[in-house]
Amino acid sequence: MVNIANNHPVVNTFLYTDEILDDLEVSLSRERLGTYLNATGGDRVKAIRLHVWNTAVSAALYELLQILEVTLRNAMNHRLGEIYGEAWYYNRDVGLNSVALDQISRARRDLEREGYDENPHQIVATLSFGFWVSLLSSGGSGVNYEMTLWRPALRGTFPQCNRLSRRGAHRPLNILRRLRNRIAHHEPIFSRALDEDHERILEVAGWISPTTRTWMEHHSRVPAFLDNP
């Protein structure tokens, strides 16, 4: 874990006066800054700088999460299409649970409202990261994703990790789903083990495509932030 809470040596040439700090506290809200103030011993300048750092590292991680999401959904969609047909989400043999079916219906309505044609490519692109991660879960009561999704199709999503179980695939992706949601909702992530999150993103990408992992790792801005908190 990167230790940045109590001593945060961010180089920042912006001059923070009391008046500027008062204005920023209104803009960002005292409640929002509370976590940062607690982490910096109530020092408002350090809290704002930590907020800036948190925003920057969040953006760097989000870049990788976007690539992982696209890579994952394309790989899963390809495998499901091979077994259940291009519009696999309509095939009853897939045995999707009610939550997944509702998400598909919502995607169709969104496409219709925005004037897009409903086709497999658009449906797949509209479904959320959480949807794809959920297909690696057990499925819940009354369904069995192990038998309808994982064994016939989705274990082939990760060709570089042949011994991977459904649970083994779901666990890290569900952690990354929660990380993505925190970033998307502008929540603080500075207290997380961000080096582990970064490696987890790259590891899962490597299970699908080593080339994609290498490309992501080469372009990742995250290590620069972790080396200079």
Keywords:
single chain; 229 residues; 11 helices; 64% helix
Outline the structure in words.
With 229 residues, the chain is mainly alpha-helical. It is built from 11 helices and no strands. It has helices spanning 18-28, 30-39, 44-84, 98-113, 120-126, 129-134, 145-150, 166-184, 194-208, 210-219, 222-227. It is elongated. Mean pLDDT is 94; it is low at 1-10.
Q: Summary?
A:
The protein is mostly helical.
Number of strands: 0
Taking all Cα atoms into account, the compactness measure Rg is 21 Å
Q: Tell me the major beta sheet.
A: none
Global outline: elongated
Give average pLDDT, whole number. Answer: 94
Helix amount:
55-70%
Low-confidence stretches: 1-10
Structural class: mainly alpha
Terminus-to-terminus distance: 12 Å
β-sheet strand percentage: under 5%
Order of helices and strands: HHHHHHHHHHH
- The total count of helices amounts to 11
